[in-house]
Design goal:
The protein is an alpha/beta fold. The chain folds into two domains: about 220 residues, Spore Coat Polysaccharide Biosynthesis Protein SpsA, Chain A (Alpha-Beta Complex), CATH 3.90.550.10; about 200 residues, UDP N-Acetylglucosamine Acyltransferase, domain 1, CATH 2.160.10. Helices cover about 20% and strands about 25% of the residues. It contains ten helices and 39 strands. The strands form six sheets. The protein has a 16-stranded parallel sheet that branches. Strands 14-17-20-23-26-28-30-33-36 form a nine-stranded parallel sheet, with no helix packed on it. The structure holds uridine-diphosphate-N-acetylglucosamine and magnesium ion (MG).
Amino acid sequence: MTKPSSAASPSAPPPPSDRPLDVVVLAAGAGTRMRSARSKMLHEVAGRPMVAWAVKAARDVGAREIVVVTGHGAEQVEAALVGSGVRFARQEQQLGTGHAFLMGARELRGDADVLVLYGDSPLLSADTLRAMLARHRAQHQALTVLTSDLPDATGYGRVVRGMGGEVERIVEQKAATPAELRITEFNSGVYLMDARAPELAAQISNDNAAHEYYLTDLLALYRQAGDQVAAFRIADPTEVMGANDRLQLAELGTLMRQRINTRHMYGGVTLLDPATTHIEDTVSIAADVVLEPGVVLRGQTQIEAGSRIGAYSVITDTYLEAAVSVKPHSVLEGAHVGEGSDVGPFARLRPGAVLDAGVHVGNFVEIKNSHLGRGVKAGHLAYLGDAQIGAESNIGAGTITANFDGVNKHRTQIGAGVFVGSNATLIAPLTLGDAAFVAGGSTVSQDVPEGAMAIGRGVQRNVDGWSARYWSKMRQKLPQKLPWLSAWLERQEKSGEN
Ligand code: UD1
Ligand code: MG
């Protein structure tokens, strides 16, 4: 808040820019054309329910109070927004936008500017809303409606202007004359109004063909009160597009992804194939990161400079330090990957996987809740769960930390510089001391001291001539398709006879 100027009398209203802003999100509509058991408002665009985009826009534009009007699927919608700091107003019957607004406005204190948003128009940007708010306040408007143009605005309310170009009213499709139907400027349904809006909305009637309470009637009510109404007319009509069916939902998704991808490309990120790259808006990516085709980045993922993400990798809530290489088809969730490490192809990092710098994780390696020290290598086919692995240790192919006894999880502690041979089963709880060796194929259930070698497997013996005796007995069953083996057996039998 800026200081009130000393010239202002104590009773004068605060200057416009100091007035708080409250937001009413209309989200009670049915959304029948979605053909869904889920509320339309909860269908996702770029990883976020549509109604949550409206709430985010409200926040980004500096809302004090946000009231979401719910009706159809109210419980679902409210549950999805719990914890986001919004309040709810129920509209039990969907009697129209004017009625919905009134339900929401009753929750407001009546001392603020009011912004109305729809819960199913996720593309509306905070930048546009800020510009609209700035104009609305600078020009001391009572009501500003957000409009745009479409060559064919069928279905929308049209903006009817007077001789001087001033906004007169909005006429709904159903009530429009043929001339009005040719108007390209349409009502987005977004309005900024002064603090009288809730009071005036109470006067809206349903005296029209549809017997609905039209929020658009507020224009006439403001004008009757002696005020002018204004339009904030934007060039890009897609910003106020809503989703009525799954086709439109997909279109909104594509537009939203394009917007997010564009932002990253201008920020210095290379997208080899933007059309197949899905980045949620919560993700942050430094310059000189390369994303190969089909990459999906979700949630609180953060990627530092110089990293490269291989094709068709899916990364959720993961922090990648600089110069990391994730090879194709890897799945990372809740992980931390240290500088210069490389992961994949076909690697899986699960929550709590922490890799220090220069770690190598190869194909078909799964890591969960484990810390791998600097320079650790786990190149192939391993499961590492609930493990601590010291720097420079090498984990052989096929190694498993047997961390689960059927009831509890146990930890495996591996020191630095340890060499675990291929196909070791490490039965937790277990500690391998620094620089220890585990012989390939061992099942290890006892701790190994520093510098020791553990071998835990059956002792091998070779039985000479066993194969020929076996196959002779099985001759009748020797598969026809094994001519080399049949000939070999014949030679063995002949040399045995001699
Ligand atoms: C409304 C506008 C129209 C505008 C269009 C833009 C009115 C009378 N008309 O028409 O001028 O061009 O939006 O999309 O306002 N909702 C409720 N409760 C209700 C009715 C609607 O919460 O009782 C919500 C819906 O969930 C939706 C929004 O309000 O988010 C708009 O409702 P919708 O029925 O789509 O309005 P339109 O008839 O399309
Ligand atoms: Mg509509």
